[in-house]
Write a structure and sequence with these properties.
Length: 348
């Protein structure tokens, strides 16, 4: 009996000593299992009560229970203490030093490609044109055939493109949207649309050419629409885009979907038309192609060329942006250079 009491006291002292020296919650749980679990040392001592004489069981049992209670209380106290210490360390690790300077975030800017695209569309919208979005992926029918370029037409070589499967391709011009609009216009009444978007051609990737570029194509169809209407429309566009002093001139050219066709030049902003290195001494800079809509295009679109006529034009977005902002390399539009884009910051 006395030996059991001595062993209980010794077990209590050892347990409390180890509990107080535990440096982590995991170690504390190991100590608890050693002393307080069902097969622990204190539980084993309690099972020895059956060997104690009946008259002494009450006293010895009280001593054993007191020892167990003391160990349990020590365990709970140390558990609480360790949790507080661990929480404090975790909070210190996650502390934000508010004395450090804050990080400045520079707001993004709009690529000049989109600034010019939107401005071109706004100008034509103010003249009553409707904006029509096209598809980047087109069929040969809409990209070539309905624009008066049948399968063996040599003009297709001028627009060498990227072919996909099942007769699909990346469009070479936004005129494909015009072909859709002509075909889908059931009223066959007056039309006045512009179609902005990306085009794709297998071209040399130098400072003036890229395998992808932007266009805004325009189309007007109605009764009595003439080249005079085309010239007046483009003259107004150029003045709104480049300034009131800018003039245009038309030069004869060739496009399979217009007849007659013209190249449109704008007077040089640098020299005012006198001739300089920018305009190569001519006083003029080419900006777009245009012409009267070819009768075949009208027929394939379901219109009667004897009743209506029209004009079409296509202006390169990057071309206008390069002239407007003095950009020297078309590849700058696609390089995402923050220094370049920051030059076009606009206040809300």
């Amino acid at each position: 009996m006395e030996s059991l009491i001595e062993e209980a006291k010794k077990c209590q002292e050892d347990a409390i000593k180890e509990i107080e020296s535990a440096s982590s919650s995991s170690r504390l749980m190991e100590i608890r299992n050693i002393y307080l679990s069902k097969k622990g040392r204190l539980s084993s001592l309690l099972s020895e009560l059956r060997n104690v004489e009946a008259k002494d069981k009450g006293r010895v049992g009280a001593i054993l229970n007191k020892a167990r209670e003391a160990v349990q209380n020590a365990f709970l106290a140390r558990e609480k203490q360790l949790k507080e210490e661990e929480m404090k360390k975790e909070l210190e690790k996650e502390t934000i030093d508010i004395s450090l300077p804050g990080r400045n975030f520079t707001p993004g800017t709009i690529n000049p490609f989109y600034l010019i695209r939107d401005e071109i569309c706004d100008i034509f919208a103010s003249m009553g044109f409707r904006i029509v979005e096209g598809n980047d992926i087109e069929s040969e029918r809409y990209n070539f055939e309905l624009l008066n370029m049948p399968h063996d037409h040599p003009a297709r070589d001028m627009q060498d493109t990227f072919y996909l499967t099942n007769g699909l391709l990346l469009r070479t011009q936004t005129s494909a949207a015009q072909a859709h609009t002509l075909e889908e216009d059931l009223s066959k009444g007056p039309l006045r649309i512009v179609s902005p978007g990306k085009c794709y051609r297998r071209d040399d990737d130098d400072m003036t050419h890229s395998h992808q570029f932007g266009q805004v194509e325009g189309l007007v169809v109605g009764k009595g629409v003439s080249m005079a209407d085309l010239k007046g429309t483009l003259a107004l566009f150029v003045k709104k885009m480049f300034g009131e002093k800018r003039k245009i001139r038309l030069r004869s050219s060739y496009f399979p979907f217009t007849e007659p066709s013209v190249e449109v030049d704008v007077s040089c902003a640098k020299c005012g038309g006198k001739g300089c290195n920018m305009c190569k001494g001519t006083g003029w800079i080419e900006i777009l192609g245009a012409g009267e809509v070819h009768p075949n295009v009208l027929k394939m679109g379901g219109y009667d060329p004897k009743e209506v006529s029209g004009f079409a034009f296509g202006v390169g977005i990057e071309r206008v942006a390069m002239l407007r902002y003095g950009i020297d390399d078309i590849r700058r539009f696609y390089q995402n250079d923050i220094r370049f884009l920051a030059s076009f910051h606009q206040e809300d």
